[in-house]
Amino acid sequence: MTLDNKGVLVTCAACGTTNRLQYNGLERATRCAKCHAGLPHPTEPIDVKGADAFDAVVANASVPIVVDFWAAWCGPCRMVAPEIAKVAANLAGKAIVLKVDTDANPELSARFGIRSIPTIGVFQHGKEVTRVSGARPAAAIEAMVPQPV
Prior knowledge:
Elements: E1 2-3, E2 7-11, E3 18-22, E4 30-31, E5 38-39, E6 46-47, H1 51-60, E7 65-70, H2 75-90, E8 96-101, H3 106-111, E9 119-124, E10 127-133, H4 138-143
Parallel strand pairs: 6-8, 7-8
Antiparallel strand pairs: 1-2, 2-3, 4-5, 7-9, 9-10
């Protein structure tokens, strides 16, 4: 799965067509535009390739966004990666999980004042609502995510 400025791009398992899950409807069930097979909610962390896509998802997502700020050389980041994957699977349809490589995205790192990694932030309605630095288990990360009212 990848991001663009309008949504999450997913490939239909039935026909191979790339579909866009619009940011403003990430909690809804979606079907493939070509074959009408059901498309899954994102169940894996999605790598952020640039600030434009990050800004678009944060501004428009209908679900909370969990962001793992990390780097490939960071041992604790590698330790928390399986926990981040669990969070993505457990919160599918209720939140979206992004991974921001701080070395590949220095603009985002600077903008959010990332001084230590891993740092996990949660965004909702275009704003950061909470943040924690250091490796955490999946349950602790999930507890940071606002629940629907």
